[in-house]
């Protein structure tokens, strides 16, 4: 398309998945617009840890997508002036069963570049953190962490200013059929469309989305006051080894899960596992819990928060600082996939990450979608 008010690609949805597709297409020389129903991204894309996770992603495709996405984040951070708050991941283990899962993980291709730290080695790095029953720590150098609530607006502005992406905010797309999309602000002309609806299953292609049997997950998260120390990287714990598919699919995870279900049944009932990430202001982003439904209620149980803080104390070896913020988020989930790419009609792709890993896999997914949609070799446009 050549008219000034026409686009090669319209992206519906201004969250991290939509932004990823806008970036990849614009870098390939396409004229792009993003249609976003709110004045800014306000959903799952900013209600998370900002933790770009490679280690622990589901073995195979998702792990590959995460490695690529991490590399793109590093590239964009340098160009757009995004702050990387910290790098690396430490998964603390408090039992022999947890250590066995870590050792099994290290024996796979996913363990490349990772290693086990003895308890004292971790405590030396982390200023004495770690509970009295700390048995070992998995260290991964692959992760980076950004502050989602500030990075997503910065990334949006950079796409507009540096790559010429046009943003149509507070605009609802009533359909997604190229070349003429009908919106609440009139017709938008585009040769192709990528629909990134997040957890909105009803506005566009509801029947197609329903056919995938998706649900929604509500998570609870917290921000804690500056604890007076700096973490050497993000921290997870035993419970993470039974939730992240790269660990949980290993046979050794069965014994760990059985032990944790017996010893920490409330944590399992509330879907709790621990991630602790630190911001530039010293505050700790801590979570999270998981509750599943076709329409999660907005009421987060206090026990879930108590379980999160309890796991913090177990893993860190000290009481949690004051809670200064708390919030919930909702994202799409599926039992049989970590993401979906669908073609509901010619020239249209429907893209939903169904595992809560949008920030960690989104750029890799977007590269596949844009390469296929426009039949181009993206390496020549990098």
Features:
globular, 11 helices, FAD/NAD(P)-binding domain, 32% helix, D-Amino Acid Oxidase, Chain A, domain 2, 382 residues, ten-stranded mixed sheet, seven-stranded mixed sheet
Work out the radius of gyration. 21 Å
Give the total of beta strands: 17
The fraction of residues assigned to DSSP E strands is 25-35%
- Helix-strand string: EHEEHEHEHEHEEEHEEHHHEEEHEEEH
The separation of the N and C termini measures 22 Å
CATH topology of the largest domain: D-Amino Acid Oxidase, Chain A, domain 2
Helix content: 25-40%
The number of helical elements comes to 11
Let me know the average pLDDT.
94
Fold and architecture overview:
The protein folds into 2 domains: 1-50 and 147-206 and 337-382, 3-Layer(bba) Sandwich (FAD/NAD(P)-binding domain); 84-146 and 215-333, 2-Layer Sandwich (D-Amino Acid Oxidase, Chain A, domain 2), CATH 3.30.9. 32% of the residues lie in helices and 25% in strands. The protein has helices spanning 16-27, 61-80, 96-106, 119-125, 148-163, 206-210, 245-248, 253-263, 265-269, 302-316, 358-374; strands spanning 6-12, 32-35, 51-52, 86-93, 115-117, 136-145, 166-168, 180-183, 186-195, 215-224, 234-236, 275-278, 284-287, 291-293, 323-333, 339-342, 348-353. The strands form 2 sheets. Strands 3, 4, 5, 6, 10, 11, 12, 13, 14 and 15 form a 10-stranded mixed beta sheet that branches. Strands 1, 2, 7, 8, 9, 16 and 17 form a 7-stranded mixed beta sheet that branches.
